[in-house]
């Protein structure tokens, strides 16, 4: 009997699927079969039903902040992340901050 339990636990992997919005987050731990992909885990998690605006064709996904494809095979304890589109271009934001800092430094001290 103990062998059956060991075999069953070896056949599944615990993973976490997460998606975050500014005011809300989705975090679900689930067990997937060995050989399951990111896409299969996302579908099984229910995140697509909870957030119908998610478009896996245009939104990147990843594991622990590293972009991956939907057909990537999962390992135990992977954290699958669905990324939202950026609101602002990080490079442009840095340029604006630098220009503002340079303008402030160029002003004479009062």
- In N-to-C order, the SSE pattern is HEEHHEEEH
Strand ordering within the main sheet: 2-1-5-3-4
Count of DSSP strands? 5
Structural class: alpha+beta
What's the pLDDT, averaged over the residues?
87
Major beta sheet summary: 5 strands, mixed
Low-confidence stretches: 1-7
Q: Report the span from N to C terminus.
A: 82 Å
Rounded Rg: 21 Å
**What proportion of the residues is helical, as a percent range?**
25-40%
**Number of helical regions:** 4
Strand content: 25-35%
- The outline comes out as elongated
Which helices and strands appear, and what pairs or packs with what?
Layout lengths: L1 H10 E9 L4 E9 L4 H8 L1 H4 L10 E3 L2 E3 L10 E4 L7 H17 L4
Parallel strand pairs: 1-5
Antiparallel strand pairs: 1-2, 3-4, 3-5
